[in-house]
UniProtKB/TrEMBL annotation:
The chain crosses the membrane at residues 370-394. One of its GO terms (cellular component) is extracellular space. Its EC number is 1.8.3.2. It comes from the Eukaryota. One of its GO terms (biological process) is protein folding. Keywords: Disulfide bond, FAD, Flavoprotein, Membrane, Oxidoreductase, Signal, Transmembrane, Transmembrane helix. Its cofactor is FAD. Residues 199-301 form the ERV/ALR sulfhydryl oxidase domain. This is Sulfhydryl oxidase. GO terms for molecular function: flavin-dependent sulfhydryl oxidase activity; protein disulfide isomerase activity.
Length: 411
């Protein structure tokens, strides 16, 4: 839910677009229709509907229940709070984060296009990160969407024209063909967060989803890819994360690594430790400035409740933790690996509905293994002249794989 104060001048244009004439004025519709959208009383068909008689909570809830075909009561709010609090200590909650990873992927890509961040200097790092997503994104539809963008990247955002011709550079922004691509399929964005939902409108969300995406990638790469994954992650954050302070800090941590990673374990543990350093710093800042989410205070992670075997010793003097890094790595692999993709089973058990099964399969896929050959993706980055041929090979392989996958499912 979003609330807009039409008494503020800064919101005048927005309120005019929605023909707001009274207070309160309530609208109902799919979240994405509100982005850049509007409402006009003369418009005959619109997915945004004004709620005419929502003056009391009872009437409003009745109206919402009718729209959803549900029978929510006011007590259901209690469960939402339980969900929020369970979040940090219940290992099952991570399964919901698959939605947030998709949302974060879409948002990150949207920001890059909105802010015209693809330049001759940053283009290669986006391609490298797309390669990582194609191979290891935990959501099947994001792997597919990233692969489509990657395969067509040289046509959509040609490197030769970028530096000399500003008009052509527009093609690498939202206005160009790239803006028509849905990196995680048409279902995304949904306009809300699940695992990363804050207790306030302006907390958590995207940055939480981005961390979860990075951790989930770090536990999926092979030893031989670990240094490439490390570099791609560092460069991606450095070039495309919108928060200046975060970029600087994160790049500082990246630059402190002098010898290349040889093991996926080392990269996953490095990212975990870097995230904890951010948590430690923000815990102090948020406590003094009260800028954090009160339901999710920053803390060293994982808490003992999630992984007691990760803890060897905690110093009584300064609270410093001695970790069992083998256990931490095992925990990361299970939490961000299998834990993250258990949704399919969970949804099947809960609903038993065929439609939801199909949706779940779309989200997770049968395994998190490489769907698109990494070799093809790598080649795409360097061999733009062989682009058409590679795209053809890639598409044919995809078809074969799809065929194989469907045949296997039928066994
Ligand atoms: C790369 C990066 C750098 C950032 N740097 C800054 C910064 O310098 N200053 C700033 O103000 N904000 C920074 N942010 C944002 C900040 O870290 C949080 O994302 C934001 O405050 C929201 O916090 P959150 O409570 O949702 O938890 P987040 O810190 O976003 O964590 C998301 C989830 O990850 C899990 N998690 C927590 N710690 C770890 C860990 N160590 N290893 C694995 N999983 C973990 C938890 O389940 C948590 O719910 C950064 C974000 C990113 C992605």
């Amino acid at each position: 839910m979003t609330r807009v104060d039409c008494a503020l001048t800064v919101n005048s244009n927005l309120c005019d677009k929605f023909s707001v004439t009274r207070f309160p004025m309530l609208f109902w519709g799919p979240p994405k229709k509100f982005i850049g959208g509007g409402w006009d009383p003369k418009q005959e068909k619109s997915e945004i509907i004004p709620i005419e008689n929502g003056q009391t909570a009872d009437i409003l809830l009745g109206w919402i229940n009718k729209q959803l075909g549900r029978s929510y009561g006011f007590d259901d709010g209690k469960h939402e709070k339980e969900h929020l609090q369970a979040n940090t200590s219940d290992s099952g909650q991570i399964a919901k984060a698959i939605y947030d990873i998709e949302e974060a992927t879409f948002t990150a890509f949207g920001i890059i296009l909105d802010h015209k961040m693809i330049t001759p200097a940053t283009r290669a790092s986006l391609i490298k990160f797309l390669q990582l997503l194609v191979a290891h994104h935990p959501s099947k539809r994001c792997r597919k969407g990233s692969a489509e963008i990657l395969v067509n990247f040289d046509d959509l955002c040609p490197s030769q024209t970028m530096s000399v011709n500003n008009e052509k550079a527009e093609s690498c922004s939202k206005k160009g063909a790239l803006g028509n691509y849905h990196i995680c399929g048409k279902e995304v964005p949904r306009g809300y967060w699940m695992y990363c939902r804050g207790s306030k409108n302006d907390t958590r969300g995207f940055s939480c989803g981005l961390w979860v995406l990075l951790h989930s990638l770090s536990v999926r790469v092979e030893d031989g890819e670990s240094n490439m994954a490390f570099r791609s992650t560092c460069d991606f954050i450095h070039n495309f994360f919108i928060c200046e302070e975060c970029r600087q800090h994160f790049y500082g941590m990246c630059s402190s690594i002098s010898s290349p990673f040889k093991k996926a374990r080392d990269f996953a543990l490095w990212l975990w430790s870097a995230h904890n350093k951010v948590n430690e710093r923000l815990a102090k800042e948020e406590a003094s400035l009260e800028t954090g989410d009160p339901e999710f205070p920053k803390a060293i992670w994982p808490p003992k409740k999630l992984c007691s075997s990760c803890y060897l010793k905690t110093s009584k003097e300064n609270g410093k933790i001695e970790w069992d890094e083998n256990e931490v790595f095992k925990f990361l692999v299970s939490y961000y690996g299998k834990g993250l993709v258990t949704l399919q089973k969970e949804m099947e058990q809960q609903s038993g509905s065929q439609t939801e099964k199909i949706v779940a399969e779309e989200v997770v896929g049968s395994t998190h293994a490489v769907v698109v050959p990494v070799g093809a993706a790598l080649a795409i980055a360097v061999a733009s002249c062989a682009f058409g041929a590679l795209a053809y090979i890639w598409r044919s392989r995809q078809k074969n794989r799809k065929y194989k996958y469907n045949s296997l499912k039928n066994i």
